[in-house]
Amino acid sequence: MTEEASSTVTGHYATLRERVGAVVVGQEEAVRLATITLLCSGHSLIEGVPGVAKTLLVRTLASALGIRFGRVQFTPDLMPSDILGTPVLDPAAGRFNFRAGPIFTDLLLADEINRASPKTQAALLEAMQERFVTVDGERHPLGEWFTVFATQNPVEQEGTYPLPEAELDRFLFKIVVDYPAEDHERALLVLHHAGEPSATPAEVAAVLQRDELAAARELVRRVIVRDEIVAYVSDLVRATRADFQYALGASPRAGLLLLRAAKAEAALEGRDYVLPEDVQTVFFPALRHRVVLDPASEVEGLTADAALERTLRTVTVPR
Q1: Which of 8, 11, 103, 187 has the fewest CB atoms within 10 Å around its CB?
Q2: What are phi and psi of 182, to 5 degrees?
Q3: Count of CB atoms situated within 10 Å of the CB of 289
Q4: Average pLDDT over all residues of the chain
């Protein structure tokens, strides 16, 4: 990949960020991580308290990219067939026809995913990993653009089912959406008070065509990774398995996705090669949901990010 090509990815991101920013005030990190998710053909978990624009972010991103958007509100009584679809009898033809569920879209918002039962959560596993859905033994493709953004509320625990490690490992990132900064929140209040609310997702025109997004993904794939960077990623992942802070360290899949995300981060910075700083930037969102803390560490009040910060400091950074 040439330097000129990598600057194209940077330009696309700047345009996308501007359009999304017309609707979602602040939350620049969430927008960046969501963009990397799409560039890596991945899926991401978005965690935040109610009212911090998690749903708005995903809906606006779909509009800015000109791709199909679908939303499923997860509830305890939601069944797998409500998401995947079901065969329906056609009396005239005397046969069953498959009626596709809401999962057949480009960008799927799985809202409050931890409110659904484990059986329904598991229905997403095959779709996220293989981009296929199997119903009654028949496989149905979801398409190359299929991306899941799943939201969950970190404060309401009643009536929720924690996602199993096997499903958490399918998510490229866990994006934490916090309250907006003071200046951003004031700007949002001023806009609405003045009767000039920000645009709605439906009013956001697409700024990237499908072929441009596909080309950007190919450019990310071709970003150069030196052997020292590969070793650095391996050392970071393996360090989580040898540390007493963790009851469960990061999987080999975590290393693969961490490296892929670092390549996308480098492309967004206009480079065709990965630096250790790119790995460090995506290290926390890529691993915070994949590691399980030792119970003794949790009792002491240690968080996943704090444990990962310690791990990052113990691994030698390549020059």
Answers
A1: 11
A2: -60, -45
A3: 23
A4: 87
Task: Compute φ and ψ for 141, nearest 5 degrees.
Answer: -70, 145
Residues 6+ apart with CB under 8 A from 94: none
Report DSSP state, residue 23. T
| 12/207 Cα distance (integer angstroms) | 8
Q: For residue 134, which phi and psi values (nearest 5 degrees)? A: -110, 120
Residue 297 has pLDDT above 70, yes or no: yes
Cβ–Cβ under 8 Å, residues 113 and 54: no
Domains of the chain: residue spans and CATH? 3-222 (3.40.50.300), 223-319 (1.10.8.80)
Residue-level pLDDT at 198: 53
Residue 199 CA: distances (Å) to CA of 23, 25, 82, 188, 274: 5, 11, 32, 12, 36
pLDDT of residue 44: 96
**What per-residue confidence (pLDDT) applies to 120?**
87
